[in-house]
Structure to design on (84 residues):
């Protein structure tokens, strides 16, 4: 299974690259597969490549779900239940 993370493009760079952010992380990503992507757009990023432009609502719902999963990992009750 693959996971693509929504990231917001903050700057277009030379050579088919863009600077993108999500949840405090910043990355340079290749936008060769989404040449229509512009600053302010949300893109799904997998293995350093932008693979699809998505709307802001979808991006935020996905980021919220990722944050919920991260919070569950940090929850001591869930960690204790998994050890039992």
């Amino acid at each position: 299974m693959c996971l693509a993370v929504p990231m917001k493009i903050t700057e277009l760079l030379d050579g088919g690259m863009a600077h993108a952010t999500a949840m405090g992380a910043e990355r340079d990503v290749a936008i060769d597969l989404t040449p229509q992507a512009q600053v302010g757009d949300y893109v799904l990023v997998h293995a350093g490549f932008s693979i699809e432009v998505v709307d802001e609502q979808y991006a935020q719902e996905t980021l919220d779900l990722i944050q919920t999963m991260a919070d569950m990992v940090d929850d001591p009750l869930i960690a204790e239940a998994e050890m039992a």
Observations:
- Strands lie at 5-13, 17-22, 25-30, 42-46, 49-54.
- Residues 28 and 72 are 28 Å apart (CA to CA).
- The mean pLDDT is 89.
